Amino acid sequence: MRLLLLIFITLSLTSCKESTPKKPLKDVKISVTNYPLFWITDSLLGSKENIQYLIPKDVHPADWQPSSQNIHNMLQSDRIFINGATLEKWLETTSIPRIKIVNSTKGLGSKFIVIKDAIHHEHDGDSHSHDTIIATTWLDSELMKGQIQNISKELQSLMSQKAQEIKNNERKLLSEITKLHESLNKALASKTKLLSDNESFKYTARENDWDVKYISLSNLKDTDWQNIIDAAKHSKVLIASSSPTLAVKEKLKELGIETILFDQCSNNREIGDYIQVMENNIKALSRLK
């Protein structure tokens, strides 16, 4: 009797689940928290109409603090795709149902780059340090592929009406990322010595086995310039995440240091998508040969 009752309950639940109507595709809304996630979602769906991207163009996603209206808008979404790897620090102080959040780097933590003792604090005379994770996971092709696969899986579940189309687009995207990595790997030889102003470049350097020394170009003092002069013995090529000020650029030129911009593609693009931006980065690096 108990067995028959269990079978009846199971069949009833299955019937209810199957009879629940799927939300019309046009009404599905997905929020994303950086440009690479927007590009992945757009590429998998083949359309931007379901995607909400709230971060202003002049704000880095890691620095974004959502307003109450932003939070309200995200709460109206069916899913919120986050980068993870500590990019979205605002989540620590924001009440958003975790059921809505999809961490695109879930299960990929073993590939993260961690900077030891990167953040220092002092409390009541006691000082301590914290490690920090470099959040620019989209600059590593294997991490990027993992993010594509995680997002694709969630979209296929959420929008099962077009699951096959999403699967097909996933295969295309993974192939594009593989080709992009191969081109980047050929741009410079292994062990090439470089300078960089941003440790976010570590993912690209690690994957291509480049020998990079990191320097700061912020609020430069005389002692900082001496560090740069010493670093110039390592390499005369600086990979910059943003264009240095004219004064800094002229000083670097005097030291014989060539500056090459490497766009990290973290925020909204008016011209060019992720692939185009990375191809432009590759062309810039290729000129060093």
Brief overview:
With 289 residues, the chain is an alpha/beta fold. It has helices at 2-19, 35-45, 68-75, 141-158, 163-187, 202-208, 222-231, 246-254, 274-286, and strands spanning 30-32, 51-53, 79-82, 101-103, 114-123, 126-133, 193-196, 211-214, 237-240, 258-261. α5 runs parallel beside α9 (274-286).
Descriptive account of the structure:
This protein is α/β, with parallel strands linked by helices and 289 residues long. The chain has a domain at 188-286: 3-Layer(aba) Sandwich (Rossmann fold). 41% of the residues lie in helices and 16% in strands. It contains 9 helices and 10 strands. A 4-stranded parallel sheet has the order 2-1-3-4, with helices on one face. The protein has a 4-stranded parallel sheet with strand order 8-7-9-10, with helices on both faces. The chain is globular and about 65 Å long.
For this entry, give a set of tags:
289 residues, alpha/beta, Rossmann fold, four-stranded parallel sheet, 9 helices, 10 strands, globular
Write the layout of secondary structure elements.
Elements: H1 2-19, E1 30-32, H2 35-45, E2 51-53, H3 68-75, E3 79-82, E4 101-103, E5 114-123, E6 126-133, H4 141-158, H5 163-187, E7 193-196, H6 202-208, E8 211-214, H7 222-231, E9 237-240, H8 246-254, E10 258-261, H9 274-286
Parallel strand pairs: 1-2, 1-3, 3-4, 7-8, 7-9, 9-10
Antiparallel strand pairs: 5-6
Helix pairs in contact: 2-4, 2-5, 4-5, 5-9
